[in-house]
Write a structure and sequence with these properties.
The chain contains 12 helices and 12 strands. It has 361 residues and is an alpha/beta fold. Helix 4 links the parallel strand 3 and strand 4. The structure holds pyridoxal-5'-phosphate (PLP).
């Protein structure tokens, strides 16, 4: 450590983000169910666009992302001028903290909320404020109680990761309407597409000037490896975020692949239906083995074990079978394992292995 060269306050408090495990030592053929990825990958139209983009590698990408923003706006019925695109929704979260929260400002999120809220708040020098949930569900009253003159941002994921639970539009509206005037509500919709008929809070955003949503191509669109996300909100916020966005933050390949992906809503519909079917099946199968889970609205299930020891032992057993799920101790849920909904064969494999684990315990 050098006594003179120091990072900004808060940065050394950041615990490095650990992604879902992708390998097990000594095993070649593992099944990864640890990062909420789409087991079917992206749509063929997205893959074709990706391949075509090779012809543009020598060209700088557009700085205003007009084609992608237009596609997103047309598909979702939005104003393209209020869409911003980023390197994953992570980058939009980061922009929000950088632009709106500084030293002594507070950034509020829930106890089992996505880890990037804390990391981005600390990176901006702000104070992360963690609020208790009720039965692994966002508690609007607890959030409102935690807000004060210093609150600048409130993040909720709806559905939430890693719990899979959701709150109603009425609850989101109540939260937005009661926040202190200087606070922005961020609706993280990384899993919104998995919920049939859900507008991800759009009606609330259109009616207010203090709410923004973040969305991603990493989950239902099957493009986690390419890193594309977007946000939609009031013009005054989008204008601010664009000022700190790098002009070439997204490559031609990212922009063109995402555009093709968002225009292929038939694929999204098929993936949503398949996910819902297998999620229901897996939840029932786990319940039959004595492992409860909350009703999940996303593409994973949070399996609750009787103790941390049992959850860890089950994880080790699954690994020995070549199955990788996600430990969530970092989300204050050490007695749980988060299992991504895979294709039918994967769900059957994981349910069978958990049955074996329970039988030998
Ligand atoms: C709730 C939530 N928000 C945001 C993200 C970030 O997604 P990305 O940066 O890949 O768009 C994730 C990824 O796991 C997530 O679970």
């Amino acid at each position: 450590m050098n006594d003179f060269i120091r990072p900004q306050p808060g940065i050394l408090d950041i615990a490095l983000y650990e992604g879902g495990k992708a390998s097990v030592a000594g095993m070649n053929n593992v099944l990864k169910l640890s990062s909420n990825e789409n087991p079917f990958g992206p749509s063929d139209r997205a893959k074709d666009a990706f391949a075509r983009s090779v012809h543009q590698l020598h060209r700088y990408p557009s700085t205003d992302h007009l084609n992608l923003r237009t596609a997103i706006a047309e598909v979702h019925g939005l104003d393209a001028g209020r869409v911003i695109c980023g390197v994953g929704s992570d980058e939009i979260i980061h922009f929000l903290c950088q632009a709106y929260a500084g030293p002594k400002d507070e950034v509020v999120f829930t106890e089992h909320g996505f880890l990037m809220y804390r990391i981005s708040a600390l990176a901006a020098g702000a104070v992360p404020v963690e609020v208790a949930e009720r039965e692994r569900t966002t508690d609007v009253d607890a959030i409102l109680k935690a807000c004060n003159r210093r609150t600048k941002l409130v993040f909720i994921a709806n559905p939430n990761n890693p719990t899979g639970t959701m709150i109603s539009a009425a609850e989101v509206e109540r939260l937005a309407s009661k926040l202190p005037p200087q606070a922005i509500l961020v609706l993280d919709g990384a899993y919104a597409e998995f919920v049939e008929g859900f507008d991800a809070g759009l009606a609330i955003i259109e009616a207010r000037d203090n709410v923004i949503m973040t969305r991603t191509f990493s989950k239902i669109y099957g493009l986690g490896g390419l890193r594309i996300g977007w946000g939609y909100g009031p013009k005054h916020i989008i204008d601010v975020l664009n000022r700190i966005r790098g002009p070439f933050n997204l490559s031609n390949t990212q922009l063109e692949t995402a555009e093709a992906a968002v225009r292929d809503q038939d694929y999204v519909t098929r993936c949503r239906a398949d996910n819902a079917r297998m999620r229901h099946w897996l939840a029932e199968a786990l319940a039959e083995h004595g492992i409860p889970s909350d009703t999940s609205m996303a593409n994973f299930i949070l399996a609750r074990f009787s103790s941390t020891e049992e959850a860890e032992a089950c994880d080790l057993f699954l690994q020995s079978q070549g199955l990788i799920v996600r430990r969530v101790a970092g989300y204050n849920l050490p007695h749980c394992l988060r299992i991504t909904i895979g294709d039918e064969a994967s769900c059957r494999r994981v349910a069978h292995a958990i049955g074996q684990f329970k039988a030998q315990a």
